Amino acid sequence: MQLLQFGTFTIPLHWVLALLSLVGGWLLTSVYVKHHQMKKESLEMIINALFVIGVVWKFSIVVFDFDTVKAHVSSVLYFTGGTKGFFLGLFVSFLYLYRQAKKKKIYKQLSETLLLFGTAGYGLYLFLHAITQGENLFIILSFVFTTTLFIVWLWDRNALDRLPKKAGLIFIVYAMIFQLPNELTLAEWSLAIIFPLCAILLSNNLLVKENV
């Protein structure tokens, strides 16, 4: 694990890359929502869901390592729930998104913003990760080209019925082609699977009927 040193404070490099990727995904999706005159609620839900993941992941150590917390209460401040806590956070955040989408009846809008946010953010993460790992220029350019192509493809809102197909292709490329050969953590790899699958579920017209 690569670490960045700031005086006496150290932080994992992949945390910094993840933060930059989330900011990049948020900026692009904000432009998308404004350009298409969509409600901002879907983007706000995604940001809230990310906050839920962080909180659950951080404090899930109480669930998965209660003995340590019982012996040293301050460990809650310094440790997390690990991989188990991260997946628990993903599960809870999805329940939050599904509940909010059902309550506000914006399944399709949420699914398209989630897919764009995830595609842009994950693509940027792959790009930054490749640079920091010293990958060759061909690999770096392939991430840039593929992500740009996906973003252009997703920008068109005139065919929302094809969104599950688009999400399926993004899933195949990001998860099956790009990630299987790479040495990323299980949590990093799982994101390539989860965000398109969530978009497919939320946009499934057979399960949900709503007017867009």
What's a concise summary of this model?
The protein has ten helices and two strands. It is mainly α and 212 residues long.
Give a structural overview.
The chain has 212 residues and is mainly α. It folds into two domains: 1-37 and 107-212, no CATH class; 40-105, no CATH class. 75% of the residues lie in helices and 4% in strands. The protein contains ten helices and two strands; from the N terminus they run ββαααααααααα. It has helices at 13-35, 41-59, 61-64, 66-71, 75-78, 82-104, 107-132, 137-155, 163-179, 186-202, and strands at residues 3-6, 9-12. The chain has a two-stranded antiparallel ribbon. A hairpin with a 2-residue loop joins β1 and β2. α7 (107-132) runs antiparallel to α10 (186-202). The termini are far apart. The model has no long low-confidence stretch (mean pLDDT 84). The chain crosses the membrane at residues 12-33, 45-64, 76-98, 110-131, 137-155, 167-184, 190-208. Keywords: Membrane, Transmembrane, Transmembrane helix.
